[in-house]
């Protein structure tokens, strides 16, 4: 669910001894950095009291896809959440998040930036994802995930746009 919430700009409301605050879902989970033992920005005794989704018109054309090893319950190898608005064959709006490729849901902001205003074609989707994922550094046994993420995100965007995948 975190991947879809990240794509749709959700926020979480937190409450604790220090008061109330609001954090973007994309900022809730930390990258490991110098404290790999700390997963989130939650402070001691702080609770999530609400999750808020803004009323984004783009969410009307959205999709979530989970790729996994087997049909029964399994964690995603890669997941993609996307929302897309196409006008006159061009990308008028896009939100894209990836799961299973980082320590936290990954908002693909570089790909979004590259796609906005450009042609809504499978080739453009693929190129933007290739650029987004170019800095990715795979671990020993998961290099396949980079290509899997690119292809899955490309297929989801193509589906949403009506382009042939």
Automatic annotation (TrEMBL):
Molecular-function GO terms, alphabetical: flavin adenine dinucleotide binding; oxidoreductase activity
SUPFAM superfamilies for this protein: CO dehydrogenase flavoprotein C-terminal domain-like, FAD-binding/transporter-associated domain-like
Domain CO dehydrogenase flavoprotein C-terminal per the UniProt entry, residue ranges: 62-160
Ranges that cross the membrane: none
Alphabetized PANTHER family for the sequence: OXIDOREDUCTASE (PTHR42659:SF1), XANTHINE DEHYDROGENASE SUBUNIT C-RELATED (PTHR42659)
Full protein name: Molybdopterin-dependent oxidoreductase-like protein
């Amino acid at each position: 669910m975190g991947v879809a919430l990240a794509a749709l700009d959700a926020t979480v409301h937190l409450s604790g001894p220090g008061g109330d605050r609001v954090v973007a879902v994309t900022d809730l989970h930390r990258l490991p950095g110098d404290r790999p033992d700390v997963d989130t920005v939650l402070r001691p005794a702080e609770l999530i009291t609400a999750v808020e989704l803004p009323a984004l018109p783009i969410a009307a054309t959205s999709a979530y896809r989970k790729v996994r090893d087997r049909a029964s319950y399994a964690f995603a190898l890669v997941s993609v959440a996307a929302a897309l608005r196409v006008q006159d064959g061009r990308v008028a709006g896009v939100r894209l998040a990836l799961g299973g490729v980082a320590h936290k849901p990954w908002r693909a902001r570089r790909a979004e930036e590259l796609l906005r205003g450009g042609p809504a074609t499978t080739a453009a989707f693929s190129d933007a994802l290739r650029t987004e994922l170019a800095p990715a550094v795979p671990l020993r046994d998961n290099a396949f995930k980079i290509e899997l993420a690119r292809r899955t995100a490309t297929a989801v965007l193509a589906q949403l746009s009506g382009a042939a995948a």
